């Protein structure tokens, strides 16, 4: 019994020091001025971590928002670093995570969903064709209505004129 009591009293003074590697997810969202890239790093221990966005493998992109490391209920930590970018043709973006549990920096590339841009172009093309069809239909109906009014006006003014002429 003495050993159990001694263990319970001394347990708070002992901590297990283990390193838990981070998990990383990257995503994007549309904003007013372009695209916002998000790098969510979670489930890591100890608390200290460095997270940054890199453009084209060498240029660091600085975030306008301050990123705060938050605790998880299980004793690990999480952080989300977001940057605002204007998409450029051929530009690549990647989230770089440096943590004491990793032998080397973890690099997670941001990849757009395949076909995302082509789908939006197809939708825009379909909407443009639909809009132009409505405009053409409106012009056709308006002209057709005017020609009927001219015919009725001609017939009422000159009732002896039969249109089309009878053989």
Features:
single chain, about 170 residues, alpha+beta, four-stranded antiparallel β-sheet, Ig-like_dom_sf
> Within the CATH hierarchy, at the fold level, what is the topology of the largest domain?
Immunoglobulin-like
What helical percentage do the residues reach? 25-40%
The first-level CATH class name of the largest domain: Mainly Beta
Uncertain residue segments: none
Series of H and E elements: HEEEEEEEEH
Tally the structural domains: 2
Number of helical segments?
A: 2
Q: What is the H level of CATH, i.e. the homologous superfamily of the largest domain?
A: Immunoglobulins
Question: What's the N-to-C terminus distance?
Answer: 125 Å
In order across it, which strands form the biggest sheet?
1-2-6-5
The radius of gyration is 34 Å
How many beta-strand segments?
8
CATH architecture assignment of the largest domain: Sandwich
Coarse morphology = elongated
Largest sheet: 4 strands, antiparallel
What amount of the residues lies in strands? 25-35%
Sheet/helix structural class: alpha+beta
| Mean pLDDT across all amino acids | 81
């Amino acid at each position: 019994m003495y050993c159990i009591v001694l263990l319970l009293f001394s347990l708070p003074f002992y901590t297990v020091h283990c390193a838990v590697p981070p998990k990383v997810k990257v995503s994007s969202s549309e904003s007013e001025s372009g695209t916002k890239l998000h790098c969510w790093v979670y489930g890591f221990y100890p608390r200290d971590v460095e997270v940054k966005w890199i453009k084209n493998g060498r240029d660091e992109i600085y975030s306008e928002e301050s990123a705060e490391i938050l605790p998880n209920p299980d004793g690990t930590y999480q952080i989300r670093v977001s940057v605002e970018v204007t998409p450029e043709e051929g530009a690549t973006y990647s989230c770089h995570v440096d943590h004491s549990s990793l032998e080397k920096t973890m690099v997670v590339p941001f990849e757009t969903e395949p076909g995302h841009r082509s789908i939006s172009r197809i939708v825009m093309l379909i909407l443009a064709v639909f809009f132009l069809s409505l405009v053409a239909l409106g012009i056709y109906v308006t002209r057709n209505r005017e020609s009927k009014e001219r015919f009725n006006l001609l017939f009422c003014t000159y009732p002896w004129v039969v249109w089309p002429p009878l053989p």
